[in-house]
TrEMBL record:
PROSITE patterns: NUDIX (PS51462), NUDIX_BOX (PS00893). Coiled coil: none annotated. This is NTP pyrophosphohydrolase. Its cofactor is Mg(2+).
Amino acid sequence: MIKKLDVVAAIIECDGKILLAQRPAHADQAGLWEFAGGKVEPGETQPQALIRELREELGIDATPGVYIDSHPRDGNGRAL
């Protein structure tokens, strides 16, 4: 059975530059670049999860802006 994950990500833009983070060496898909974000925890909404992840990863307090898209896909034996 494929484990389903609900994940969120933020596109953070300032002065025409977009913030990306490089995945650490110990992580799945190490070395790849990604937008800040992460998994939605049980009982959380997607906006709540994004606010929490940005606080944890970047130390910033953010307000989610425009919702862009959902993109279901399979990856590494998981449905994202």
